[in-house]
Fold this sequence. Notes:
α2 (43-53) packs antiparallel against α3 and α3 (62-86) packs parallel to α5 (112-123). The protein has helices spanning 15-28, 43-53, 62-86, 97-107, 112-123, 138-152, 165-181, 194-211; strands at residues 4-8, 33-37, 90-94, 130-135, 185-189. The chain has one domain: Rossmann fold (3-Layer(aba) Sandwich). By secondary structure, the chain is α/β, with parallel strands linked by helices. The chain is globular and about 50 Å long. It is built from eight helices and five strands; from the N terminus they run βαβααβααβααβα. Its EC number is 2.7.4.9. Belongs to the thymidylate kinase family. ATP binds at residues 9-16.
Amino acid sequence: xxxxxxxxxxxxxxxxxxxxxxxxxxxxxxxxxxxxxxxxxxxxxxxxxxxxxxxxxxxxxxxxxxxxxxxxxxxxxxxxxxxxxxxxxxxxxxxxxxxxxxxxxxxxxxxxxxxxxxxxxxxxxxxxxxxxxxxxxxxxxxxxxxxxxxxxxxxxxxxxxxxxxxxxxxxxxxxxxxxxxxxxxxxxxxxxxxxxxxxxxxxxxxxxxxxxxxxx
Length: 216
């Protein structure tokens, strides 16, 4: 049985690192895995990503931002995620629809009904089986994210890091609300070493699989 697992959280929470680590552990157990990300994951969506995350595009209006995310997601789902799941491959995705609810809904304060409609159209109804929310205080996450961007040369993707502290605090609140209202969510404390957080993720995943009687 192929599982679709999304990783969510604010800036600097360590999603990319933990996805790579989990993908390696699953591969070692003989499970076919695809690690991907949003926005992006395929050529067309990656082109949209360059528009969305470039700090030079500071004048991008929230409605246009929302529509671009939806367009990138539609392409990503049809070209990458659904084919992988159909072939029995587990998909680990760095952000999915919940990110739009948190960032464009909570951060940008766009109407939730509009976001819900666009998410449904973009995904054709696809939802993750499990969503791992890596939770971290906003100040710590931004400190990590800004330092990472300066260190690895990804400052060209720092448009959201430039947002106000209040923006990121709204994002975190909405993520917490989503975790409380959706059974597929599991909250993971993102403080600590990479190994410590990975251990928490392993325990959560083992519990999730046991609850559903899935044996690897």
